[in-house]
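Many introductory courses stop at the sequence. We go one step further.
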Amino acid sequence: MKSISLVSLAFWSALGSCAAYTGRTEPEPVSHRFNRRQAVSPSSGNDTAPDNDYVMGALPGGQGKSTIDKLLAQHADGADIATLLNPPHAGKVPDPPNAAPRRQPLTPRIEFWHPNSKTVKLRYGPYNVPNMTETGNFGGHGGMLYNYPDLNIDKPCDDCRIVGVNADLEYADGSSANVTNGMWLHHYVHFVVGEGRTDATCGGEEVSLPHKIIGETPRNAERFFSSGNEKTLAAFYGASRIAGYRLREEDQMAVIVDFMNENMEDKVVYLTVTYDYVEGDPEGYADVRPIWFDIVKCGTSELPSPRDSDSFEITSPPWTPDFDAEIIGFGGHLHDGGTSVIVSVDGRSIGVSNASYTEYTVAVPDHDPNRGETGHGHGSNQTTHLSGMSPIIGTDLIERELAKGQKWEIKATYDYGLYEPERGMDGALENIMGIAIMFVIPDT
Protein backbone atom coordinates (compact mmCIF):
# COMPACT_ATOMS: atom_id res chain seq x y z
CA MET A 1 0.00 0.00 0.00
CA LYS A 2 1.51 3.31 -1.08
CA SER A 3 1.69 6.09 1.48
CA ILE A 4 -0.18 9.26 0.50
CA SER A 5 0.85 12.65 1.86
CA LEU A 6 -1.76 15.10 3.11
CA VAL A 7 -3.04 17.65 0.62
CA SER A 8 -4.48 20.94 1.83
CA LEU A 9 -8.05 21.77 0.86
CA ALA A 10 -9.17 25.39 0.75
CA PHE A 11 -12.73 26.19 1.74
CA TRP A 12 -13.49 29.91 1.63
CA SER A 13 -17.08 29.46 2.73
CA ALA A 14 -19.56 26.70 3.49
CA LEU A 15 -20.21 23.61 1.44
CA GLY A 16 -23.81 23.60 0.41
CA SER A 17 -26.35 20.93 0.15
CA CYS A 18 -29.21 19.55 2.20
CA ALA A 19 -30.57 16.58 4.17
CA ALA A 20 -33.98 15.02 4.71
CA TYR A 21 -36.43 13.13 6.89
CA THR A 22 -40.01 13.45 8.05
CA GLY A 23 -41.58 12.41 11.30
CA ARG A 24 -45.04 11.56 9.95
CA THR A 25 -46.16 8.00 10.64
CA GLU A 26 -49.59 8.30 8.97
CA PRO A 27 -50.41 9.15 5.33
CA GLU A 28 -50.43 12.87 4.66
CA PRO A 29 -53.65 14.54 3.51
CA VAL A 30 -53.56 15.37 -0.20
CA SER A 31 -53.72 19.09 0.56
CA HIS A 32 -50.49 18.86 2.55
CA ARG A 33 -48.44 16.75 0.19
CA PHE A 34 -45.18 18.27 -1.05
CA ASN A 35 -45.52 21.04 1.56
CA ARG A 36 -41.93 21.71 2.60
CA ARG A 37 -42.70 22.34 6.27
CA GLN A 38 -41.79 20.70 9.52
CA ALA A 39 -43.30 17.53 10.89
CA VAL A 40 -42.74 17.35 14.64
CA SER A 41 -41.50 14.06 16.00
CA PRO A 42 -44.33 12.31 17.79
CA SER A 43 -41.91 11.18 20.49
CA SER A 44 -39.84 14.34 20.73
CA GLY A 45 -41.56 15.90 23.74
CA ASN A 46 -39.30 18.53 25.29
CA ASP A 47 -36.08 16.62 24.84
CA THR A 48 -33.05 18.32 23.31
CA ALA A 49 -32.80 15.87 20.41
CA PRO A 50 -35.21 13.81 18.29
CA ASP A 51 -35.14 10.08 18.78
CA ASN A 52 -33.22 7.97 16.30
CA ASP A 53 -36.29 6.09 15.02
CA TYR A 54 -37.72 9.42 13.90
CA VAL A 55 -34.64 10.23 11.87
CA MET A 56 -34.21 6.73 10.45
CA GLY A 57 -37.87 6.65 9.45
CA ALA A 58 -37.06 8.87 6.48
CA LEU A 59 -34.74 6.35 4.91
CA PRO A 60 -35.95 4.11 2.08
CA GLY A 61 -38.17 1.48 3.69
CA GLY A 62 -38.80 3.56 6.83
CA GLN A 63 -42.20 4.51 8.19
CA GLY A 64 -41.83 8.28 8.26
CA LYS A 65 -40.73 9.16 4.74
CA SER A 66 -41.88 12.35 3.07
CA THR A 67 -44.24 12.08 0.12
CA ILE A 68 -41.49 12.74 -2.42
CA ASP A 69 -39.36 10.03 -0.80
CA LYS A 70 -42.29 7.61 -1.07
CA LEU A 71 -42.91 8.49 -4.71
CA LEU A 72 -39.26 8.17 -5.65
CA ALA A 73 -39.01 4.83 -3.87
CA GLN A 74 -42.09 3.48 -5.66
CA HIS A 75 -41.57 4.77 -9.20
CA ALA A 76 -38.76 4.07 -11.62
CA ASP A 77 -38.48 7.49 -13.23
CA GLY A 78 -37.28 9.86 -10.53
CA ALA A 79 -36.65 12.66 -13.00
CA ASP A 80 -40.31 12.71 -14.08
CA ILE A 81 -41.46 12.79 -10.45
CA ALA A 82 -39.11 15.65 -9.58
CA THR A 83 -40.37 17.60 -12.60
CA LEU A 84 -43.97 16.89 -11.55
CA LEU A 85 -43.41 18.78 -8.29
CA ASN A 86 -42.87 22.09 -10.10
CA PRO A 87 -45.31 24.29 -12.07
CA PRO A 88 -45.39 23.41 -15.81
CA HIS A 89 -43.51 26.55 -16.87
CA ALA A 90 -40.77 26.13 -14.25
CA GLY A 91 -37.38 24.73 -15.13
CA LYS A 92 -35.07 24.93 -18.12
CA VAL A 93 -35.87 27.57 -20.76
CA PRO A 94 -34.10 29.01 -23.85
CA ASP A 95 -31.38 31.62 -23.47
CA PRO A 96 -32.78 35.16 -23.27
CA PRO A 97 -31.53 37.66 -25.88
CA ASN A 98 -28.08 39.09 -25.16
CA ALA A 99 -27.32 36.52 -22.47
CA ALA A 100 -23.71 36.32 -21.32
CA PRO A 101 -21.61 33.52 -22.89
CA ARG A 102 -22.12 30.02 -21.54
CA ARG A 103 -18.38 29.31 -21.38
CA GLN A 104 -16.11 32.02 -19.99
CA PRO A 105 -12.34 31.45 -19.69
CA LEU A 106 -11.02 33.34 -16.67
CA THR A 107 -7.60 34.32 -15.38
CA PRO A 108 -6.09 31.26 -13.66
CA ARG A 109 -6.56 31.69 -9.92
CA ILE A 110 -4.60 28.83 -8.31
CA GLU A 111 -1.46 28.59 -10.48
CA PHE A 112 0.64 29.03 -7.35
CA TRP A 113 -0.37 25.51 -6.25
CA HIS A 114 -1.10 24.03 -9.67
CA PRO A 115 1.26 25.30 -12.39
CA ASN A 116 -0.33 25.37 -15.85
CA SER A 117 -3.83 25.17 -14.37
CA LYS A 118 -6.72 26.87 -16.15
CA THR A 119 -9.91 28.46 -14.81
CA VAL A 120 -13.24 28.49 -16.64
CA LYS A 121 -16.78 29.48 -15.68
CA LEU A 122 -19.65 27.47 -17.18
CA ARG A 123 -23.26 28.71 -17.09
CA TYR A 124 -25.96 26.05 -16.80
CA GLY A 125 -29.64 26.52 -17.56
CA PRO A 126 -31.14 28.98 -17.79
CA TYR A 127 -33.94 28.08 -15.40
CA ASN A 128 -37.25 29.82 -14.87
CA VAL A 129 -37.97 30.11 -11.13
CA PRO A 130 -41.68 30.73 -10.32
CA ASN A 131 -42.71 33.83 -8.40
CA MET A 132 -43.70 33.55 -4.76
CA THR A 133 -47.44 33.28 -5.45
CA GLU A 134 -47.02 30.07 -7.49
CA THR A 135 -46.74 26.64 -5.96
CA GLY A 136 -46.05 23.25 -7.48
CA ASN A 137 -48.68 20.88 -8.80
CA PHE A 138 -49.33 19.52 -5.31
CA GLY A 139 -49.17 22.73 -3.27
CA GLY A 140 -46.35 23.67 -0.92
CA HIS A 141 -44.35 26.88 -0.80
CA GLY A 142 -44.35 29.36 -3.66
CA GLY A 143 -41.27 30.79 -5.28
CA MET A 144 -39.44 27.49 -5.72
CA LEU A 145 -37.74 25.54 -8.45
CA TYR A 146 -37.66 22.36 -6.40
CA ASN A 147 -35.05 19.59 -6.85
CA TYR A 148 -35.02 19.98 -10.62
CA PRO A 149 -32.70 17.62 -12.56
CA ASP A 150 -30.54 18.82 -15.46
CA LEU A 151 -28.85 15.91 -17.21
CA ASN A 152 -25.66 15.60 -19.25
CA ILE A 153 -24.48 19.17 -18.71
CA ASP A 154 -21.30 20.60 -20.23
CA LYS A 155 -18.00 19.57 -18.69
CA PRO A 156 -15.09 21.98 -18.20
CA CYS A 157 -12.76 19.55 -19.98
CA ASP A 158 -12.76 16.01 -21.37
CA ASP A 159 -9.42 14.71 -20.07
CA CYS A 160 -8.18 16.56 -17.01
CA ARG A 161 -7.78 16.85 -13.23
CA ILE A 162 -10.20 19.22 -11.49
CA VAL A 163 -8.30 21.03 -8.74
CA GLY A 164 -10.85 23.66 -7.68
CA VAL A 165 -14.59 24.32 -7.96
CA ASN A 166 -17.27 26.70 -6.71
CA ALA A 167 -20.84 27.65 -7.68
CA ASP A 168 -22.90 30.83 -7.97
CA LEU A 169 -26.22 32.12 -9.31
CA GLU A 170 -26.55 34.78 -12.03
CA TYR A 171 -29.10 36.57 -14.16
CA ALA A 172 -28.88 36.43 -17.96
CA ASP A 173 -26.60 39.48 -18.16
CA GLY A 174 -24.14 37.97 -15.68
CA SER A 175 -25.17 40.06 -12.67
CA SER A 176 -25.47 38.41 -9.28
CA ALA A 177 -28.74 36.72 -8.27
CA ASN A 178 -28.55 36.81 -4.50
CA VAL A 179 -30.30 37.52 -1.20
CA THR A 180 -30.20 41.26 -1.75
CA ASN A 181 -32.44 40.98 -4.83
CA GLY A 182 -34.62 38.15 -3.59
CA MET A 183 -32.91 35.09 -5.13
CA TRP A 184 -31.28 32.14 -3.38
CA LEU A 185 -29.08 29.32 -4.56
CA HIS A 186 -30.81 27.11 -2.01
CA HIS A 187 -28.75 24.12 -3.04
CA TYR A 188 -27.41 22.20 -5.97
CA VAL A 189 -25.93 18.71 -6.15
CA HIS A 190 -23.27 17.92 -8.75
CA PHE A 191 -22.83 14.37 -10.06
CA VAL A 192 -20.17 12.71 -12.19
CA VAL A 193 -21.63 9.75 -14.08
CA GLY A 194 -19.55 6.99 -15.61
CA GLU A 195 -18.07 3.53 -15.25
CA GLY A 196 -16.53 3.03 -11.82
CA ARG A 197 -18.10 6.18 -10.36
CA THR A 198 -19.43 4.55 -7.19
CA ASP A 199 -20.83 6.92 -4.58
CA ALA A 200 -18.76 6.46 -1.42
CA THR A 201 -21.57 6.48 1.16
CA CYS A 202 -24.55 5.28 -0.91
CA GLY A 203 -22.92 2.87 -3.36
CA GLY A 204 -23.95 -0.14 -1.30
CA GLU A 205 -27.55 0.96 -0.79
CA GLU A 206 -30.44 -0.57 -2.71
CA VAL A 207 -31.94 2.89 -3.32
CA SER A 208 -30.36 6.34 -3.30
CA LEU A 209 -33.01 8.95 -3.97
CA PRO A 210 -30.70 11.75 -5.21
CA HIS A 211 -29.33 9.37 -7.83
CA LYS A 212 -32.84 8.29 -8.76
CA ILE A 213 -33.80 11.90 -9.47
CA ILE A 214 -31.16 12.03 -12.23
CA GLY A 215 -32.08 8.56 -13.50
CA GLU A 216 -28.86 6.89 -12.34
CA THR A 217 -27.72 4.58 -9.54
CA PRO A 218 -25.09 5.12 -6.83
CA ARG A 219 -23.01 2.46 -8.56
CA ASN A 220 -22.45 4.50 -11.72
CA ALA A 221 -22.68 8.08 -10.39
CA GLU A 222 -21.04 9.82 -7.46
CA ARG A 223 -21.89 13.12 -5.79
CA PHE A 224 -18.81 15.16 -6.63
CA PHE A 225 -19.64 18.59 -5.19
CA SER A 226 -22.44 20.68 -3.79
CA SER A 227 -23.13 24.26 -2.81
CA GLY A 228 -25.76 26.45 -1.22
CA ASN A 229 -25.94 30.22 -1.04
CA GLU A 230 -22.59 30.21 0.77
CA LYS A 231 -21.03 29.53 -2.64
CA THR A 232 -18.00 27.61 -1.48
CA LEU A 233 -14.72 27.51 -3.30
CA ALA A 234 -12.95 24.23 -2.66
CA ALA A 235 -9.40 23.86 -3.98
CA PHE A 236 -6.83 21.09 -3.55
CA TYR A 237 -3.35 22.46 -3.01
CA GLY A 238 -0.20 22.86 -0.99
CA ALA A 239 1.37 19.44 -0.38
CA SER A 240 4.45 17.53 -1.44
CA ARG A 241 2.13 15.39 -3.55
CA ILE A 242 -0.52 17.32 -5.42
CA ALA A 243 -3.93 15.83 -6.14
CA GLY A 244 -6.98 16.40 -8.30
CA TYR A 245 -10.31 14.85 -9.24
CA ARG A 246 -9.83 12.82 -12.42
CA LEU A 247 -12.34 13.60 -15.19
CA ARG A 248 -12.34 11.28 -18.21
CA GLU A 249 -13.64 11.78 -21.73
CA GLU A 250 -16.37 9.17 -21.25
CA ASP A 251 -17.64 10.72 -17.99
CA GLN A 252 -20.81 12.79 -17.95
CA MET A 253 -22.05 15.40 -15.49
CA ALA A 254 -25.54 16.08 -14.12
CA VAL A 255 -26.98 18.41 -11.48
CA ILE A 256 -30.03 18.77 -9.26
CA VAL A 257 -30.89 22.44 -8.67
CA ASP A 258 -33.11 24.00 -6.02
CA PHE A 259 -33.63 27.78 -6.26
CA MET A 260 -35.78 30.21 -4.26
CA ASN A 261 -37.46 33.35 -5.59
CA GLU A 262 -38.69 35.98 -3.12
CA ASN A 263 -40.04 38.24 -5.87
CA MET A 264 -43.56 38.76 -7.21
CA GLU A 265 -42.45 37.94 -10.76
CA ASP A 266 -40.76 34.89 -12.24
CA LYS A 267 -36.98 35.10 -12.55
CA VAL A 268 -34.71 33.47 -15.13
CA VAL A 269 -31.32 32.54 -13.69
CA TYR A 270 -28.19 30.54 -14.51
CA LEU A 271 -26.32 28.23 -12.21
CA THR A 272 -22.63 28.99 -12.71
CA VAL A 273 -19.85 26.61 -11.79
CA THR A 274 -16.26 27.82 -11.95
CA TYR A 275 -13.68 25.07 -12.36
CA ASP A 276 -9.92 25.05 -11.96
CA TYR A 277 -8.27 22.21 -13.85
CA VAL A 278 -5.07 20.92 -15.37
CA GLU A 279 -5.17 19.30 -18.80
CA GLY A 280 -4.58 15.57 -19.12
CA ASP A 281 -3.26 13.47 -16.26
CA PRO A 282 0.06 15.03 -15.25
CA GLU A 283 2.67 12.80 -13.67
CA GLY A 284 2.63 12.81 -9.87
CA TYR A 285 -1.03 13.69 -9.36
CA ALA A 286 -2.95 11.59 -6.84
CA ASP A 287 -6.68 10.87 -7.02
CA VAL A 288 -9.23 12.76 -4.94
CA ARG A 289 -12.46 11.08 -3.84
CA PRO A 290 -15.46 12.93 -2.34
CA ILE A 291 -17.33 11.46 0.64
CA TRP A 292 -20.84 12.82 1.17
CA PHE A 293 -22.06 12.66 4.79
CA ASP A 294 -25.76 13.40 5.26
CA ILE A 295 -27.94 13.22 8.37
CA VAL A 296 -30.26 11.00 6.36
CA LYS A 297 -27.51 9.49 4.19
CA CYS A 298 -29.28 8.55 0.93
CA GLY A 299 -32.61 10.41 1.13
CA THR A 300 -33.65 13.48 -0.83
CA SER A 301 -31.90 15.79 1.66
CA GLU A 302 -35.02 17.54 2.94
CA LEU A 303 -35.29 17.39 6.72
CA PRO A 304 -38.21 18.85 8.71
CA SER A 305 -37.16 20.63 11.89
CA PRO A 306 -37.98 18.60 15.02
CA ARG A 307 -38.15 21.68 17.26
CA ASP A 308 -39.87 25.05 17.16
CA SER A 309 -37.43 26.56 19.65
CA ASP A 310 -34.41 25.80 21.80
CA SER A 311 -31.48 23.62 20.77
CA PHE A 312 -31.16 20.12 19.38
CA GLU A 313 -28.74 17.87 17.53
CA ILE A 314 -29.21 15.16 14.93
CA THR A 315 -26.75 12.35 14.23
CA SER A 316 -26.47 10.71 10.82
CA PRO A 317 -26.71 6.99 10.15
CA PRO A 318 -23.21 5.47 10.41
CA TRP A 319 -21.06 4.72 7.38
CA THR A 320 -18.28 2.12 7.23
CA PRO A 321 -15.63 2.54 4.49
CA ASP A 322 -14.24 -0.37 2.51
CA PHE A 323 -11.01 1.43 1.60
CA ASP A 324 -8.14 3.27 3.29
CA ALA A 325 -7.39 6.92 2.60
CA GLU A 326 -5.69 10.08 3.75
CA ILE A 327 -8.16 12.79 4.81
CA ILE A 328 -7.74 16.13 3.06
CA GLY A 329 -10.41 18.08 4.92
CA PHE A 330 -14.12 18.75 5.18
CA GLY A 331 -16.67 21.52 5.29
CA GLY A 332 -20.16 21.50 6.76
CA HIS A 333 -23.51 22.85 5.64
CA LEU A 334 -26.52 23.86 7.75
CA HIS A 335 -29.61 26.05 7.54
CA ASP A 336 -30.30 29.20 9.54
CA GLY A 337 -30.33 28.36 13.23
CA GLY A 338 -27.52 25.85 12.78
CA THR A 339 -24.34 26.17 14.81
CA SER A 340 -21.97 23.35 13.85
CA VAL A 341 -21.33 20.11 12.00
CA ILE A 342 -19.17 17.57 13.81
CA VAL A 343 -17.49 14.71 11.94
CA SER A 344 -16.51 11.71 14.05
CA VAL A 345 -14.96 8.27 13.65
CA ASP A 346 -15.62 5.47 16.14
CA GLY A 347 -17.08 8.04 18.53
CA ARG A 348 -14.09 10.42 18.32
CA SER A 349 -14.49 13.87 16.80
CA ILE A 350 -11.99 14.68 14.06
CA GLY A 351 -13.12 18.32 13.82
CA VAL A 352 -15.99 20.79 14.13
CA SER A 353 -17.14 23.05 11.28
CA ASN A 354 -18.73 26.11 12.90
CA ALA A 355 -21.35 28.40 11.35
CA SER A 356 -20.98 32.16 10.95
CA TYR A 357 -23.77 34.67 10.27
CA THR A 358 -24.14 37.95 8.34
CA GLU A 359 -26.81 40.64 8.38
CA TYR A 360 -27.93 41.39 4.81
CA THR A 361 -29.58 44.47 3.33
CA VAL A 362 -32.40 43.11 1.19
CA ALA A 363 -34.38 44.79 -1.57
CA VAL A 364 -37.56 42.69 -1.52
CA PRO A 365 -40.71 43.80 0.33
CA ASP A 366 -42.42 42.23 3.32
CA HIS A 367 -44.70 39.40 2.24
CA ASP A 368 -48.38 39.04 3.06
CA PRO A 369 -49.74 35.46 3.06
CA ASN A 370 -53.28 36.90 3.03
CA ARG A 371 -52.60 38.09 -0.53
CA GLY A 372 -51.42 34.68 -1.68
CA GLU A 373 -47.74 35.43 -1.03
CA THR A 374 -46.73 31.98 0.14
CA GLY A 375 -42.98 32.18 -0.29
CA HIS A 376 -40.22 31.50 2.18
CA GLY A 377 -39.59 33.86 5.07
CA HIS A 378 -36.24 35.03 3.75
CA GLY A 379 -37.18 38.55 2.70
CA SER A 380 -37.03 41.68 4.82
CA ASN A 381 -38.75 39.78 7.64
CA GLN A 382 -35.42 38.10 8.36
CA THR A 383 -32.12 39.73 7.43
CA THR A 384 -29.51 37.71 9.36
CA HIS A 385 -28.55 34.48 7.66
CA LEU A 386 -25.91 31.79 7.84
CA SER A 387 -23.08 32.98 5.61
CA GLY A 388 -20.22 30.56 6.15
CA MET A 389 -18.90 27.39 7.72
CA SER A 390 -15.36 27.09 9.02
CA PRO A 391 -13.16 24.67 7.04
CA ILE A 392 -11.44 21.83 8.85
CA ILE A 393 -8.16 21.11 7.05
CA GLY A 394 -4.55 20.25 7.79
CA THR A 395 -3.64 20.76 11.44
CA ASP A 396 -7.31 21.49 12.25
CA LEU A 397 -7.96 17.77 11.78
CA ILE A 398 -7.61 15.75 14.96
CA GLU A 399 -7.24 12.58 12.89
CA ARG A 400 -6.15 12.31 9.26
CA GLU A 401 -6.55 8.63 8.43
CA LEU A 402 -9.64 6.84 7.13
CA ALA A 403 -9.51 3.05 7.42
CA LYS A 404 -11.60 0.03 6.50
CA GLY A 405 -14.07 -1.04 9.17
CA GLN A 406 -14.35 2.28 10.99
CA LYS A 407 -17.72 3.82 11.88
CA TRP A 408 -18.09 7.36 10.54
CA GLU A 409 -20.96 9.76 11.26
CA ILE A 410 -21.77 13.45 11.48
CA LYS A 411 -23.76 15.43 14.02
CA ALA A 412 -25.64 18.61 13.06
CA THR A 413 -26.35 21.03 15.92
CA TYR A 414 -28.99 23.78 15.96
CA ASP A 415 -29.78 26.51 18.50
CA TYR A 416 -32.86 28.62 17.70
CA GLY A 417 -32.26 30.69 20.83
CA LEU A 418 -28.93 31.81 19.41
CA TYR A 419 -29.83 32.18 15.73
CA GLU A 420 -33.26 32.66 14.18
CA PRO A 421 -34.38 29.70 12.05
CA GLU A 422 -35.88 29.93 8.58
CA ARG A 423 -39.66 30.26 8.61
CA GLY A 424 -42.39 30.46 6.00
CA MET A 425 -44.61 33.50 5.83
CA ASP A 426 -47.17 31.73 8.03
CA GLY A 427 -44.50 31.26 10.69
CA ALA A 428 -44.01 27.55 10.04
CA LEU A 429 -40.45 26.29 10.29
CA GLU A 430 -38.57 25.56 7.08
CA ASN A 431 -36.64 22.34 6.53
CA ILE A 432 -33.18 22.00 8.01
CA MET A 433 -30.00 20.45 6.64
CA GLY A 434 -26.95 18.70 7.98
CA ILE A 435 -24.16 17.74 5.60
CA ALA A 436 -20.41 17.45 5.43
CA ILE A 437 -18.42 16.78 2.27
CA MET A 438 -15.04 15.29 3.05
CA PHE A 439 -12.35 14.90 0.40
CA VAL A 440 -9.80 12.11 0.70
CA ILE A 441 -6.90 10.58 -1.22
CA PRO A 442 -7.43 6.80 -1.40
CA ASP A 443 -4.39 4.62 -0.82
CA THR A 444 -3.21 2.83 -3.94
